[in-house]
Amino acid sequence: MFDFLKKLFKGDESKKTDSKPVKKTTKPKAEPKKSTVVKSKTVKKESNKKTKPKNETAKLKPAKKIETKPLKEQEETPKKEEKLSFAEKIKQGLKKTRDAISDNLSTLSFTKKIDQEFYDELEMTLIAADVGYAATQQIITELKDRVKKEKLEDGAQLKNLLKKILLELLQQIEKPLIHIETTPFVILVVGVNGAGKTTTIGKLTKLLLDEGKSVLIAAGDTFRAAAKEQLQVWGDRNNVTVISQDTGDPSAVIFDAMQSAKAKGVDIVIADTAGRLPTQKHLIDELAKIKKVIQKFDETAPHETILVLDANTGQNAINQIKVFNEAVSLTGLIMTKLDGTAKGGIVAAIAKEQPIPLRFIGVGEKIDDLKIFSAEDYAEGMLE
What we know:
Layout: H1 2-51, H2 54-82, H3 86-93, H4 95-111, H5 116-128, H6 133-150, H7 155-170, E1 185-190, H8 197-210, E2 215-218, H9 227-238, E3 241-243, H10 250-264, E4 268-271, H11 281-297, E5 304-310, H12 316-328, E6 332-336, H13 346-353, E7 358-362, E8 370-372, H14 375-382
Parallel strand pairs: 1-4, 1-5, 2-3, 2-4, 5-6, 6-7
Antiparallel strand pairs: 7-8
């Protein structure tokens, strides 16, 4: 019995010894796993070493203090822009024109000579600023005559004289919109594509509301995609009604708007029209048709026909005025996009060649950036 137990005991030891090599075989498989863990630890240690140095953390603390200063300055800059008067905005918008003319006049202040060469240079400067040939000739001629009469030689005096001559020219088109007691007072807005009619209508609505008038908008542009939706956005901003149709004749839309305005006692109807180029005669003729349909409701309507002009078009604005005036007899103009990207001398060219009243000018994208045209502010902006 004892011998039998010995055999059993030896058998268990043999099994244990057999299992050892199995464990040994598994150990090499586990070794690569351990090595990968060790590698990841070493990477983490290196990364920790990079973030731990005290010198770098000490550098970050003053950096936070420095960063707070420009943030305060950035918060203050928009406040300064909000405080700008409209006259100052005009100066900003006419910076391109003013700089070009001022550079020419500054050379005079050093040379102290008012000769033909100076007049030739000034003439080229005014023409380049879109003042136009006719207006430039008038300005130069008057300037020469007054310089001789007043015997001017100082550059500063000449600049003031030039400003006076320009002011006198611009005052010919300085006629604010006068509201007639007839209600609804209909304003027909026309212009080429991209001149900013839709945006101008939204800003004009805000301006009229501020004067205590009630306004209704007629979405007469039934051709351009999303024109109705864009006007509706401006209507929502100003909390006014926009009359529109999914499909239909623009004349019918405006006619319906006039009927609605009369029924509701609305003071002013602003009627939008589709943008059209002066060369598209069939579309220009359609404006005359719209006007006739409006007159079936009110013989005196539209009471104001405004052409919206983009200041960036330069001398092409003169041609637009001629074509639209022949079709619908313009009574007023609105000049848009005078925000530093345009050569504002075109207003002087209009005053000389097509003296139609310039009712409003736009000098920015904000809803309050459409204001009544002021000849004095404009002349000051061109020749500060």
